[in-house]
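Here is one chain, start to finish.
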Amino acid sequence: MQRFFYFYMMKNTFRNIDEYLLLFPGEVQEKLDRLREIIRLKAPDSEEYIGYQMPAFRYKGKPLIYFAGYKNHIGFYPGAEGIKNFEKNFREKAYKFSKGAVQFPIHEALPVDLILNILTFKIQEIDQKNPEI
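Its structure:
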């Protein structure tokens, strides 16, 4: 069943974040919805959308953050500069990360303070690059 679930998820187009969340088991839905809530609180003027088949938020018309659910983790995608700036934090917590993404283990609490710090960084990055907006 789980194998079908992930195949189904990768082959479908989602119109909004609510549709995306419905594909996950309850515990994962709650965690993804909590992440969505954190982003909304930090960036209330941001716009939700689906980008690259993942939930995403746009701030001032620019991509702010992407996230996605997986079997063992939640992928959080702040881009290369977001990862580079917080690499030390990821290493301290032993989170797996790559050039543009970090993995938060599904069975651990979301690192809310770290997420908020990353969002603050991303908002400032967009504001600096687009001061006229």
